[in-house]
Amino acid sequence: MNKRIIVVYKSIYGATTTYATWISQALNARLAQSKEVTPAELGKYDVVVYGGGLYAGGIAGVKLVTKAPYKNLVIFTVGLADPDATNYSPVIDRLSPELRTKARVFHLRGGIDYKRLNLIHKVMMSMKKREILKKPESELTGESRKFLETYGRQINFCDKDSIQPLVDYVQSCIKVIQ
């Protein structure tokens, strides 16, 4: 196991756990849930990879990695939207200016199972659906159409191949340190 890298995550419904597991395996790194580590402990690693789901425009549990400076910080988000068709500026803008300049952020596509959502998330998704339905058909994006098509169902967009740019980046950080 590479003792210089740790992959830490906070997952609510499981997609972030899936990605964190794949990333830790690819990097031969320690894997830990966010509740299992402290900011001080994370400071002992050359590279900290933090993953959290996207909820209400924020990254779940990201405060853990905002509490201490790290040599190399990589953050990955997991959300329902297609990363290639989504503007993540509002999410990134919620990070501190220091964190925005020091951390490298990657976005991965997760999934959803409406039957497993808690009440707050069910309400949020229902509001999103109503918002989309208010738009004229001509203004709907491909993402909006996909959302409506899959609403209320279970869908999984997790893709193991999509972690490769993150893995390559972390490996390049380790090479620079050596």
Q: Mean of the pLDDT scores? A: 90
* Domains, number: 2
Using the coordinates above, name the CATH class of the largest domain.
Answer: Alpha Beta
CATH topology of the largest domain: Rossmann fold
Q: Summarize the biggest pleated sheet.
A: 6 strands, mixed
Low-confidence stretches: none
Report what the structure shows.
This protein has 178 residues and is an alpha/beta fold. The chain has two domains: 2-110 and 157-177, Flavodoxin domain (Rossmann fold, 3-Layer(aba) Sandwich), CATH 3.40.50; 113-155, no CATH class. The chain is 37% helix and 26% strand. It contains seven helices and eight strands. Strands 1, 2, 3, 4, 5 and 6 form a six-stranded mixed beta sheet that branches. It has a two-stranded antiparallel ribbon with strand order 7-8. A hairpin with a 2-residue loop joins strand 3 (47-55) and strand 4. The chain is elongated. The relative contact order is 0.17.
Protein traits:
single chain, 178 residues, alpha/beta, Rossmann fold, six-stranded mixed β-sheet, two-stranded antiparallel sheet, 7 helices, 37% helix, elongated
How would the blueprint of this fold be written?
Blueprint: E1 2-10, H1 15-27, E2 29-33, H2 39-42, E3 47-55, E4 58-59, E5 72-79, H3 89-93, H4 97-102, E6 103-109, E7 111-113, H5 119-133, H6 142-150, E8 154-156, H7 164-177
Parallel strand pairs: 1-2, 1-3, 3-5, 5-6
Antiparallel strand pairs: 3-4, 7-8
